[in-house]
Amino acid sequence: MAGKKLGIGIDLGTTNLLVYVQGHGIIFNEPSVVAFDVETGDVIAGGEDAFSMLGKTHKKIRVSRPLRDGVISDMDAAKAMLRYVFKRVQTIRNFKDSKCLICCPSEVTQIEREAMRDLAIQMGIKDVFIEEEIKAGAIGAGIDIYTPTAAMVIDIGGGTTDVGVLSLGDVVLSHSIRIAGNYIDQEIVKYVHKQHNLVIGHSSAEKAKKKIGTLLETDELQTYRVSGRDLVTGLPSSVELNSDEIRNILLPIFDEIRNVAYTVLEQTPPELAADIVDNGIVVDGGGALIPGIKEYFEEQINLPVRIAENSLTAVVEGTKVLLKNRGSYLVNPTD
């Protein structure tokens, strides 16, 4: 339709990049990784294909994660990643007349926000605005944030965890910490190094987290074998991890997240706190998929907890509403 801008919503995540385009749905949902030919600078792979190359390349290929801890650490790689995404979608050709929403963690600095905005502008999109991930995630998780009733959200992503309270279409208060999925992977790598004298990669740690990671205490242990380089012999080796070991790594990490939730609740105005007592807390993001999250937060915070059904895509799905409702705090638009 003439005069109507195409809406593009981007969840520029540390772990995964998700892109929503009005009229096309979610067109991309793959790891935020891009691979370059070192000699020519050309992109040779992105997303899943590039992710499979991590830790396995030779000197002629460079694999990069454009984001670290929720912010752009490699601008060239971030631009290349988005170009790669849009090039893959043959049905969408012209973005210059589009409006683009990029979601970021709540405590990203103004300089970091400008870097994200510049990323889209340099690709030819003139109308670019930034919203907080926690706001988009709340909408995507099915919360109507445009009412006077408060909602509390814990968004556990790859690079950051955001905890916030929303009401009347915006964030009332929020806190963000750079302790999330990637941090858990790093702690697993450190644990295996220290306890088993084995050096493993972050991909192996992530697989162990997904396979046997849990906050539930159970008599039936699950196991997962990880492989790497033995520190004593220098040779390839492997060790079997169990779910109790991973749980002991996870608990202090989630205690940190719980402490942030405490801080937010302590700062929440009384009327909004009353709503949270009635409505509880919604958890989204990749970290929400770890078994036992609901039980852990309910026990620790003593409030009802709901895990978003679409935890991994809640943020980008929330951009559908924010793209239509830009600048309004009182009306929740419908299709």
From TrEMBL:
<keyword id="KW-0067">ATP-binding</keyword>
<protein>
    <recommendedName>
        <fullName>Cell shape-determining protein MreB</fullName>
    </recommendedName>
</protein>
<dbReference type="GO" id="GO:0005737">
    <property type="term" value="C:cytoplasm"/>
</dbReference>
<dbReference type="InterPro" id="IPR043129">
    <property type="entry name" value="ATPase_NBD"/>
</dbReference>
<dbReference type="GO" id="GO:0008360">
    <property type="term" value="P:regulation of cell shape"/>
</dbReference>
<comment type="subunit">
    <text>Forms polymers.</text>
</comment>
<keyword id="KW-0963">Cytoplasm</keyword>
<comment type="similarity">
    <text>Belongs to the FtsA/MreB family.</text>
</comment>
<dbReference type="InterPro" id="IPR056546">
    <property type="entry name" value="MreB_MamK-like"/>
</dbReference>
<keyword id="KW-0547">Nucleotide-binding</keyword>
<dbReference type="Pfam" id="PF06723">
    <property type="entry name" value="MreB_Mbl"/>
</dbReference>
<dbReference type="GO" id="GO:0000902">
    <property type="term" value="P:cell morphogenesis"/>
</dbReference>
<comment type="function">
    <text>Forms membrane-associated dynamic filaments that are essential for cell shape determination. Acts by regulating cell wall synthesis and cell elongation, and thus cell shape. A feedback loop between cell geometry and MreB localization may maintain elongated cell shape by targeting cell wall growth to regions of negative cell wall curvature.</text>
</comment>
<dbReference type="GO" id="GO:0005524">
    <property type="term" value="F:ATP binding"/>
</dbReference>
<dbReference type="InterPro" id="IPR004753">
    <property type="entry name" value="MreB"/>
</dbReference>
<feature type="binding site">
    <location>
        <begin position="286"/>
        <end position="289"/>
    </location>
    <ligand>
        <name>ATP</name>
    </ligand>
</feature>
<feature type="binding site">
    <location>
        <begin position="158"/>
        <end position="160"/>
    </location>
    <ligand>
        <name>ATP</name>
    </ligand>
</feature>
<dbReference type="GO" id="GO:0016491">
    <property type="term" value="F:oxidoreductase activity"/>
</dbReference>
<keyword id="KW-0133">Cell shape</keyword>
<keyword id="KW-0560">Oxidoreductase</keyword>
